[in-house]
Amino acid sequence: MLEVMNTSHDKWTFAVEYASPTPHLRQKLWNTLKRDNLNITTPWIAAGDFNSVTKREEVSNPDHFEAHRCSRFNEWTFDEAMIDLGFIGQCFTWKRGTDNVNFKGARLDRVLCSIDWLDRNTKTEVRHLASSKYDQILISLGDQSGTKRVGLNIKGRGSHIPTSST
């Protein structure tokens, strides 16, 4: 996690996440990644690969969608009052396979923010950028005018959120 100060001297917290593909390890992350647990007192963003979708429209084969697989992520999002900033660009952030027979895709990567962060940054946009080298795409965070991109003066500390007792 980083504490960020922008050019207007507004402070906010930026958490970059990678959630494990293993369900019980993801659950540990949801139990740990809480504003109160982490003493986050500023507006905040959590961005990255959450390895979870939120609804059937976020997978390439909605006929095989199982709601229970995303229920804990949806509960965490609700409990923390996090808002999905949406996106411009490709709908799937993870892809595997190249033809209709073996293609799989899902929106596993996203940017979520607290209500107080969105109140201060109402023109924020998230773009999914194409990538041909990886099975995941890149995400860009900026404002709608295109004049501001994430070019921030970062002052603070980085830390790892432990998800196990070892």
> What is the gyration radius calculated from CA atoms?
16 Å
Cross-sheet strand order for the largest sheet: 4-8-3-2-1-11
Main beta sheet = 6 strands, mixed
The general outline is globular
CATH class: Alpha Beta
Tally of individual domains: 1
Number of helices: 3
The CATH architecture: 4-Layer Sandwich
Strand content: 25-35%
Q: Name the CATH homologous superfamily.
A: Endonuclease/exonuclease/phosphatase
Helix content range of the residues, please?
10-25%
Briefly note the CATH topology name.
Deoxyribonuclease I, Chain A
Helix and strand succession? EEHEHEEEEEHEEE
| Alpha-beta classification | alpha+beta
Low-confidence stretches: 147-166
From the N-terminal CA to the C-terminal CA, the straight-line distance is 20 Å
How confident is the prediction overall: mean pLDDT? 81
What's the total count of β strands? 11
Write a structural description:
It comes from Cuscuta australis. With 166 residues, the chain is of the alpha+beta class. The protein has a single domain, classed as 4-Layer Sandwich (Deoxyribonuclease I, Chain A). The chain has three helices and eleven strands. The strands form three sheets. A six-stranded mixed sheet has the order 4-8-3-2-1-11. The C terminus is likely disordered.
Name the descriptors.
alpha+beta, Deoxyribonuclease I, Chain A, 6-stranded mixed sheet, 3 helices, Endo/exonuclease/phosphatase, Endonuclease/exonuclease/phosphatase domain-containing protein, catalytic activity, Endo/exonu/phosph_ase_sf
